[in-house]
Amino acid sequence: MLLNELPQNIQEMIQERNKLFSHYDQEQIGENGFLSDDSSILSDAVIALSLGKNILLKGPTGSGKTKLAEALSHIFRQPLHSVNCSVDTDSEALLGFKTISEKEGKNRIEFVPGPVVKAMERGHLLYIDEINMAKPETLPILNSILDYRRKFTNPFTANVVKAKETFGVIAAINEGYIGTVPLNEALKNRFIVIDIPYVQGEVLKKVIQQESLLKDEKLIQQFIRFSDDLLFQVRNGQIPEEAASIRALLDSCDLAVFMPPLRAVQRGIADKLEEDRERAAVMNIAATLF
User: Fold this and answer.
1) How far is CA 192 from CA 89, 168, 195, 239, in A?
2) Is this structure's pTM higher than 0.85?
3) The architecture CATH gives domain 3-195
4) How far is it, in rounded angstroms, from Cα 34 to Cα 207?
5) Helix crossing, 39-50 with 65-76: angle to 10°?
6) Consecutive 10-residue runs of the chain (290 residues): their mean pLDDT?
């Protein structure tokens, strides 16, 4: 997506925000490595974030949700604070925690801010990955942060934390995976939802060329066909979505530089699956191509 293809007022908003964050080092800004057949995915995300909307990225594992979040960080020149949710994610993981420190020979209790507080106070971007993996009782903390109030009372300090105007929230979700729970409607309604589909065809070829060590053109084409066949079986319910993960496919491409492709697929994809039937199905598909 070219920025000059966006509406003029959106371009002006981006330029103004870029000025605010131009002093940050490149390491603090995400890379613009998102690739998709659908250019509207990135442009719609840029527009939504420019308007102060929260974005919820829906898609299977390895489809590029984190890449899109990093691309938005790059476009807006805003540092990205990340939270990787799990079943153990609690309010401390989001907001921060209290600890004892020593200053001038005296012990004192101080609050160490977490990613949510840092992003709010500095006007940066917040990325909440696998948001539906967090404990349901933890997520209501985010409600007032995600709506028009853009503030909350910190339970650890009793202080009111208010977000700077440039603060933005991007969350990612994989629906139906083990350990995930459906987002309640009150939380989901605070987001603009953008669906991120599987990468295929020429876009997948570019991803492999850019992200993996594999350079053999013939082998790359075989892995693209292999990915298509995996997706077909996912849609038929024969194998789980994680079997068609682009991340796992790239692992296999890397391994295929140093070992036979069939063994690379076994190590990179098949052996990650839980059931013998699923592993056998993946290896049967691979055997027809490699």
Assistant:
1) 23, 12, 10, 30
2) no
3) 3-Layer(aba) Sandwich (3.40)
4) 9
5) 50
6) 66 70 52 72 89 90 84 89 87 86 77 91 92 81 90 89 92 70 80 88 88 93 95 88 88 95 95 91 94
